[in-house]
Design goal:
By secondary structure, the protein is mainly α. It has a domain at 24-81. Helix content is 42%, strand content 0%. The protein is built from 4 helices and no strands. Helix 1 packs across helix 2. The chain is elongated and about 50 Å long. The termini are far apart. The model has no long low-confidence stretch (mean pLDDT 85).
Length: 83
């Protein structure tokens, strides 16, 4: 898509719709929070495998693999700079 808008297109008043959204975690379906929990277990080494992590969290491996590349934690760059 040469216009740089991807598949999202135009929103109201012809303004481009962002490809990324910042949404409070508590309003998302539980599966997205579970994905983040599985990622945290794997990153911290608390579990040795994805299979072990999804069992601990209580979600399916297929749901984890479906969303793992689309769900990321957001860090406030101002808060990170002040550390």
């Amino acid at each position: 898509m040469a216009d740089g808008m991807g598949s999202r297109g135009l929103g109201l008043a012809g303004k481009p719709i962002s490809e990324y959204l910042l949404i409070k975690a508590d309003v998302l379906p539980e599966v997205f929070n579970n994905v983040m929990e599985v990622k945290a277990l794997l990153q911290t080494g608390q579990v040795a495998s994805v299979n072990e992590a999804v069992k601990q969290v209580g979600m399916s491996r297929s749901a984890f693999y479906k969303y793992r590349d689309s769900v990321q934690a957001w860090q406030d760059p101002i808060a990170v700079d002040s550390l």
